[in-house]
Amino acid sequence: MPTTFQEAHSPLLGQITFRQLADAMPQMVWSTLPDGLHDYYNARWYEFTGAPLGSTDGEGWNDMFHPEDQERAWTVWRRSLATGEPYEIEYRLRHHSGEYRWALGRALPVRGEEGQIVRWVGTCTDIHEHKQSEQMNAVLSRELSHRIKNIFAVIGGIIGISSRQFPQLETLATQLQSRVAALGRAHDYARPHSEDSAPHGGPSQLTEMLRQLLSPYPALDEGRITIEGEQLTVDDRGATPIGLTFHELATNSMKYGALSASDGQVRIVVSSEDGNVTIEWIETGGPPVVKPDFIGFGTELTEIAIVAQLGGTIDREWLPEGLRVTIRILAERLRR
């Protein structure tokens, strides 16, 4: 008696052809010869595009892309053909209704016994609704960020107006305005970015970025926050998730940790070895710390930033002398 699903159904599986299997899939499936010329599309492709059977063979497939995406799609495809690397790209594909819908194109090479590429097999997946949701979230994020920055500007303006009524507080008001402006600059590192908004003119060194991020906190000027270690290059890819994480650490420290005490100190140490970067946040001199009983929203945000966005790890230790946070990421993740 057959003991496995495969044994029980092997006669049936042997009767199913590639075309039957591909036509049964919910995705658009295609294949090409080793040189990249398309010679097969499944039923889903023709249902989606409405193209006549066989009309997109050869190089005709490129006409199905949005005109703005055609050259980019060709460039990525040629690179895969030349290197044998997996093909993956998002583009707008013409639907049979006439509209262009976002699709995710992927392909892998099929290799022969001696390793040579004998065929490419790929899929196109309709991701239009997902892409629209992603774009809407990006718009909402930018709008929220814009309003927050406006709030910082309004607060700075109110401080300036109030200082005119109390000239004796002018020096304090100037310092407060400087702190509020610094919070606005720090917010630009900590907020989510889209592809359009991400490249900001921030510092290119990690320690300098952290110093600018923490500049709103008086403890930095007082020497109670120290930043030391190697000078590592960072761009918007690493700046945003790291900025979000350290903004959250500093905020919590002001509420509950070392920065809430007049003598409390925070030491940040940046080091690297063998392509790995370690960033330590070390608190001392503050009130006794206790491991929380639940995971707060801020902690979830830092996990998303470091683990999900940068593929790193973040470890927290609630020691008698204070909180210690160790972040480890690959150096290549700091920049594009």
UniProtKB/TrEMBL annotation:
<dbReference type="Pfam" id="PF07536">
    <property type="entry name" value="HWE_HK"/>
</dbReference>
<keyword id="KW-0716">Sensory transduction</keyword>
<keyword id="KW-0597">Phosphoprotein</keyword>
<keyword id="KW-0547">Nucleotide-binding</keyword>
<keyword id="KW-0843">Virulence</keyword>
<dbReference type="InterPro" id="IPR001610">
    <property type="entry name" value="PAC"/>
</dbReference>
<keyword id="KW-0285">Flavoprotein</keyword>
<dbReference type="InterPro" id="IPR011102">
    <property type="entry name" value="Sig_transdc_His_kinase_HWE"/>
</dbReference>
<keyword id="KW-0808">Transferase</keyword>
<keyword id="KW-0677">Repeat</keyword>
<keyword id="KW-0288">FMN</keyword>
<keyword id="KW-0600">Photoreceptor protein</keyword>
<dbReference type="Pfam" id="PF08447">
    <property type="entry name" value="PAS_3"/>
</dbReference>
<keyword id="KW-0067">ATP-binding</keyword>
<keyword id="KW-0157">Chromophore</keyword>
<dbReference type="InterPro" id="IPR000700">
    <property type="entry name" value="PAS-assoc_C"/>
</dbReference>
<dbReference type="GO" id="GO:0004673">
    <property type="term" value="F:protein histidine kinase activity"/>
</dbReference>
<feature type="domain" description="PAC">
    <location>
        <begin position="87"/>
        <end position="139"/>
    </location>
</feature>
<dbReference type="InterPro" id="IPR000014">
    <property type="entry name" value="PAS"/>
</dbReference>
<protein>
    <recommendedName>
        <fullName>histidine kinase</fullName>
        <ecNumber>2.7.13.3</ecNumber>
    </recommendedName>
</protein>
<dbReference type="GO" id="GO:0009881">
    <property type="term" value="F:photoreceptor activity"/>
</dbReference>
<dbReference type="InterPro" id="IPR035965">
    <property type="entry name" value="PAS-like_dom_sf"/>
</dbReference>
<dbReference type="GO" id="GO:0005524">
    <property type="term" value="F:ATP binding"/>
</dbReference>
<keyword id="KW-0675">Receptor</keyword>
<dbReference type="InterPro" id="IPR013655">
    <property type="entry name" value="PAS_fold_3"/>
</dbReference>
<keyword id="KW-0418">Kinase</keyword>
<dbReference type="InterPro" id="IPR036890">
    <property type="entry name" value="HATPase_C_sf"/>
</dbReference>
